[in-house]
Amino acid sequence: MSRDRRLSWMMIAPALLLVTVxxxxxxxxxxxxxxxxxxxxxxxxxxxxxxxxxxxxxLTTLRICVFTTAITLVLAYAVAYVLTHARxxxxxxxxxxxxxPLWMSVLVRAFAWVTLLRREGLLNKGLMSLGLxxxxxxxxxxxxxxxxxxxxYMLPLGILPLWSAxxxxxxxxxxxxxxxxxxxxxxxxxxxxxxxxxxxxGAGLLVFIFSLGFFITxxxxxxxxxIMVAEYIDTQIQESLRWGxxxxxxxxLIATIFLLMFVLGRIVDLRTLFGAK
Length: 277
Hints:
277 residues, mainly alpha, MetI-like fold, 13 helices, globular
């Protein structure tokens, strides 16, 4: 090993040690608890196939994550497309609007949606005053409210990777398509959209991964009636004291996220996706 290589390893050794102690060691501990509590074995993992409550929670989580990802991608793609073709001054203002929610506490945003979506909230009052509805809409304590809150949180995480991917599309390709007689719709559908698909896939997986472990927004907007997997884990550990079940679900969730991250890395260059290349 060369001197420069040894020096490089010495420089990153403290960071590697920190990651090992603070990240991988707790993960190993969680895995060990999942196969030792209350008795050694894979009995906790068998509950994934036999427990109705766990299966219902997993299906609810999957359904909400799929809807959240789909809605976020549609909205994020439109914003990223406009952002890509906007003038520099407009781009700066739009980016400020995209980044501003990231600087706000997720708790503050969740309670803001409570103010808007509850039965006596601003949205229902506005719709009733306009005569569009006779009775308040049920927009909270259900999957609708949870999805709305999660889409709002996920939009910047969808817009930024898509914008990064769209910026990488060579404008000369689009100009060549138009020069060959393609209209704006044809140019978008047959040139721009296919070239942006890696960004769509990457942003979709990224949003889905973040959605899987959401806790605060579903807990507040779901009101205990719509329970996702993170809240279920908290209930098993904090209230039911079923450490084996809670850590089993946590381990399953972590393994799923690692698998999705591996798939994401195989589909797109992560450095390109986040604008580092």
